[in-house]
């Protein structure tokens, strides 16, 4: 059953065509994931489908009610919904006092409470902890029709049965989940590379053939001076005929070159190498530390006698439930709280998503260069690696999408004098390609990084240490999140084995006691004893 359709849809920003599609249909049961680079028009498409934004041309027909979970939403929520308690925010209706994760859950609970036939969701997992993502996934799996933007690969794989990729303003449709789409895209890129290499090889071969024929034509002998008139005419005619054939061959080869179907060169992945020595980095083994710190927010105690150490050059992920103090910890470090020691040469750069570090009236390049200690060439390479190329560096920040603004904030941070980076949910609102670029950059970064993230793949790729925040304490672990969870599982299993051993040993003691009684069945007890002893030996 058709519940929404868009016909001859077009949307421009200035003279740039953002969205163009002749026919888009959403049917009951569709669970559509929208993907594309930052600035491709993903949010614009959702805004048009929801009615938040008007298209420049085309017709939108909606045959049902729609709820819309928006990114960067500061709207007051309708407190009449039933799901606030499930998301743990039934006492957080004052958005000014709620954390980023709590505001996201308020918005999600409010929209899901509408029980609409169609749900539009723009990056709904951003700022959510693992527990909340699990709840959200369960809720969305019960909704019949969804159109979803997300950078969470596992989330899209679980929920989506169709993918729409927005590329150069056009919509490309795929059946299946994100993994299936990714396989198709990888095959397309591989095919593009092969076709480009074949095109270049054939073009070089034909150009060489042209040069060879031209060389033959130029090397043809002129009529000798001693030759008689009759003989000279014959020689000249033969030369002209050969020359004409060679010229015809050249024209034919040139025609073949012109008719070659030009193949687009695949994008080259740039390597960024910043001059980290310009930041005058500290040489201390421990950069930031605290042996005993406490923090309360109103009457709510976030940290009590907590301690931690941030080591030089390490990439440390901070994980924990919403409200456990992840962002609070980064804020306390950034504000140089008196309970936390930071070495004198540490220069902190703090990334958070309110864009307060950006001047919207200036261009991308101007924003980055104003605080850069790196060369303009290096800055342009950083921006290019973050998928802001060529003339795009001259765009004003005010016209950029949310994801593009985030990338400008990253570039500004990476080119600055900072040698210690604090990153609060750095992957939020970034497309997959940009997340991979950020992973690559951070893994090669020579400085110290402390970051909050709910993106498991990103944490496991970048982190070599983990801080686990729970019960007002900070537990430190050497390794990434996956290694921590495996270690925790092994520890739990060992604990279970210890308990089981203790129970079996108690049973053996009991059997020995019973065997000392006069009326006991010694044969049966001995058999039971041997059986339990074997179990203990196996353990």
Automatic annotation (TrEMBL):
Keywords: ATP-binding, Coiled coil, Nucleotide-binding, Repeat. Residues 182-209 form a coiled coil. It comes from the Bacteria. Residues 211-231 are annotated as: Disordered. Residues 4-193, 288-496 form the ABC transporter domain. InterPro entries: AAA+_ATPase, ABC_transporter-like_ATP-bd, ABCF, P-loop_NTPase. The keyword Repeat applies. GO terms for molecular function: ATP binding; ATP hydrolysis activity. PANTHER family: ATP-BINDING TRANSPORT PROTEIN-RELATED, RIBOSOME PROTECTION PROTEIN VMLR. This is Putative ABC transporter ATP-binding protein YbiT. It comes from Clostridium ragsdalei P11. The gene is ybiT_2.
């Amino acid at each position: 059953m058709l519940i929404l359709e868009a016909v001859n849809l077009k949307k421009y920003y200035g003279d740039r065509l953002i969205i163009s599609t002749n026919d888009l249909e959403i049917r009951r049961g569709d669970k559509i994931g929208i993907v594309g680079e930052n600035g491709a028009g993903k949010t614009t498409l959702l805004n048009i489908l929801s009615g938040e934004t008007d298209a420049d041309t085309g017709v939108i027909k909606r045959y049902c009610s729609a709820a819309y979970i928006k990114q960067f939403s500061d709207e007051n929520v309708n407190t009449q919904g039933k799901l606030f308690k499930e998301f743990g925010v039934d006492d957080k209706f004052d958005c000014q006092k709620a954390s980023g994760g709590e505001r996201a859950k308020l918005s999600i609970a409010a929209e899901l409470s509408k029980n609409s036939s169609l749900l539009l969701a723009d990056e709904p997992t951003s700022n959510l902890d693992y527990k909340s993502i699990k709840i959200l996934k369960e809720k969305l799996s019960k909704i019949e029709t969804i159109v979803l933007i997300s950078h969470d690969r596992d989330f899209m794989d679980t929920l989506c049965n169709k993918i729409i990729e927005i590329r150069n303003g056009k919509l490309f449709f795929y059946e299946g989940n994100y993994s299936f789409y990714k396989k198709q895209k990888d095959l397309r890129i591989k095919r593009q590379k092969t076709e480009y290499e074949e095109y270049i090889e054939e073009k070089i071969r034909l150009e060489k053939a042209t040069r060879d024929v031209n060389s033959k034509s130029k090397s043809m002998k002129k009529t000798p001076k001693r030759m008689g008139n009759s003989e000279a005419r014959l020689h000249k005619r033969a030369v002209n005929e050969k020359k004409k054939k060679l010229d015809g061959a050249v024209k034919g080869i040139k025609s073949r070159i012109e008719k070659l179907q030009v193949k687009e060169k695949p994008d080259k992945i740039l390597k960024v190498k910043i001059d980290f020595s310009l930041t005058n980095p500290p040489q201390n083994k421990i950069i930031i530390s605290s042996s005993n710190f406490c923090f309360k927010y109103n009457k709510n105690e976030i940290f009590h006698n907590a301690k931690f150490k941030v080591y030089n050059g390490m990439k440390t992920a901070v994980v924990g439930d919403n409200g456990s103090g992840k962002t609070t910890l980064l804020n306390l470090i950034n504000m140089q709280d008196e309970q936390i020691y930071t070495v004198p040469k540490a220069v902190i750069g703090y990334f958070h998503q309110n864009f307060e570090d950006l001047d919207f009236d200036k261009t991308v390049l101007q924003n980055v260069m104003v605080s850069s200690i790196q060369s303009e060439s290096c800055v342009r390479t950083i921006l290019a690696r973050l998928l802001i190329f060529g003339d795009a560096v001259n765009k004003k920040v005010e016209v950029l999408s949310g994801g593009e603004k985030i990338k400008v904030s990253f570039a500004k941070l990476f080119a600055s004098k900072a040698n210690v980076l604090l990153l609060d949910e750095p992957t939020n609102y970034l497309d997959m390609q940009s997340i991979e670029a950020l992973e690559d950059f951070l893994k090669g970064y020579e400085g110290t990084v402390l970051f909050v993230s709910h993106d498991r793949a990103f944490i496991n790729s970048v982190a070599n240490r983990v801080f686990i925040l729970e019960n007002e304490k900070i537990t430190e672990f050497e390794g990434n999140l996956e290694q921590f969870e495996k270690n925790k599982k092994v520890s739990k299993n060992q604990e279970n084995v210890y308990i089981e051993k203790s129970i079996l040993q108690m049973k053996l003691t009991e059997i020995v006691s019973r065997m000392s009684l006069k009326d006991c069945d010694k044969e049966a007890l001995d058999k039971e004893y041997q059986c339990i002893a074997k179990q203990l030996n196996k353990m």
